[in-house]
Task: structure prediction
Amino acid sequence: MIASNRLARQPLPPPSARSMLLTVIGEFLYDAEEGAWTAALMKVLGGMGIEDHAARQLLSRAASAKWIKRERVGRGVRWHLADHGRALAADGIKRSHAFLDGPSPWNDEWLVLTITVPQRKNSVRNRLNGGLTWLGMGNPTPGVWVTPHVDRARELSELISTLGLTESALVLTGNLRPGGLGNHEVVDRAWDLTDLAESYQTLLTQDGASEPGDDDELLLAYIELVSLQQRFMRLDPQLPKELLPEWIGRDGAVLFQRRREQWSAQAHAHWLRVVEESAPK
Result:
């Protein structure tokens, strides 16, 4: 396999090798009871530009993190999703459906978090900020995070509990009242979407400029597509039309949906062939 590099100009910074592995296992192992041979994963990761020794380290670290688990079969090793990896994949699939379907009509309710993290807990703060961004939350004023996606309250509570911050957090839902910021002022302060809009524009202007030639290229292009969608999902708060009437990100979601429908079946079929051909002789 040869790395695809379909886009001449990358709309977002490249993903880490760890992120690419999570994309592959989440997409192809989630519903695959048979798992995947080491050689199949190595071949695909190699196609994404990850060298053999780095790919083997990646698999070992993913196993230590409980993303995947080994099954020794004769002289070979087959990999399956472990419980933590399955939970991560399920969360990604759920968020992907929401991203591709677009936000539901908004009922004027916000999910609000007020929280303080001690200065000495930098690593906790970084994990919190990353988790809040994944939940689509913005930061309009110091110590306050908001999102119009009130259905993510359970996930927010789990994040706070996991980080041990329950005693310094207040979570609530409700409408804004006169006397403070209005809905659109909250949006302006909580999210700066200028760079993200430019990234979407870079993506959209290159669609169709280069098509995959054979099955190997299509499989890699599909993996790159899913990875790119995941990175856009992490950055895009997916605000409803009531708060952001014109948003290029919705055109981006349509592109991802169309390309996934176009390539998914063929990519998954070729993946199964790669797994079969990689079985120990």
Observations:
- Strands lie at 36-37, 68-73, 76-81, 110-115, 138-141, 144-147, 169-174.
- The chain has ten helices and seven strands.
- The chain has a mean pLDDT of 93.
- The longest strand covers residues 68-73.
